[in-house]
């Protein structure tokens, strides 16, 4: 029998921790080639555990506690490539619970160290596609609870209020020249952030639309294309593992809700990482690869707005800091090992920053007040003349 007094104490500790934390910053970034477009980064790296996943972990723990899934002494298990595990380890330690992270063997050593710093244990597996199965088995063997972020992310977050990321963005944008963004750009990891944003925008009747960006070796883009009737081929899975840590999945996850998204773009890894380096240079500090993926989406939306003669704002997410990737994305040897040509991607990004269209596949849902993205992308194409996606 789960003791209600322990649950009440655990919830109180999480709420007190939240009350001690300040909101994350909203950082403007000028794009001179797009003078009517104001761009902002929601800096989620300033959370106590250094990433956007801090919000998700807090929501997952509160959801599990309210459902009666955790009790004193529960072993908490998660399948995670890193950032969610770091944040969940933080909350597990806050509640005095053991934590095990099941993750791919190629996860950055900095993330492994961060999990262990928070008191967690890392269980590395060679086959990234099997981490869920390993996590379920570990939870069964320990009598613990598998948090299952990829299933519960979209339902654990209160998208109506409770300081979700969408509410925070609109509160911080209130005094800006264009307080209601034309676009909010986010990546697809669990799908939970995109669902929270999309639901909140509809619930509050905002005209803002969501652009979700997907890296290579991820199934979300094809799944979305099939869902809006513009895809072809198998949209149920893809080969390989995403090289942009924190986003991309080999299959569509339960928390990914296509109908919450207005448009989706597929971003080559080389372009994501070129954008990562540009954002780092412009902000004066390193950011992670998923922030670069987001910035490619920002440039695509900015070009579409300018092409349609629109002024307005775009908000995207700075997901985490680059210190977690010092051994990979910031090392030339890593690019050589993965066969990534940085020169072509850097040149393509430089052209986009100068005002040219950035050449990435985009699929859009039908309808909506603002059709700038749709008008600038007349069809769904797998490849274009710039940085190409592998077939």
From TrEMBL:
It catalyses: L-cysteine + H2O = hydrogen sulfide + pyruvate + NH4(+) + H(+); O-acetyl-L-serine + hydrogen sulfide = L-cysteine + acetate. SUPFAM superfamilies: Tryptophan synthase beta subunit-like PLP-dependent enzymes (SSF53686). Its cofactor is pyridoxal 5'-phosphate. Pathway: Amino-acid biosynthesis; L-cysteine biosynthesis; L-cysteine from L-serine: step 2/2. Keywords: Cytoplasm, Lyase, Pyridoxal phosphate. The modification N6-(pyridoxal phosphate)lysine is found at residue 53. Belongs to the cysteine synthase/cystathionine beta-synthase family. Cds1 subfamily. This is L-cysteine desulfhydrase Cds1. It comes from Lysobacter stagni.
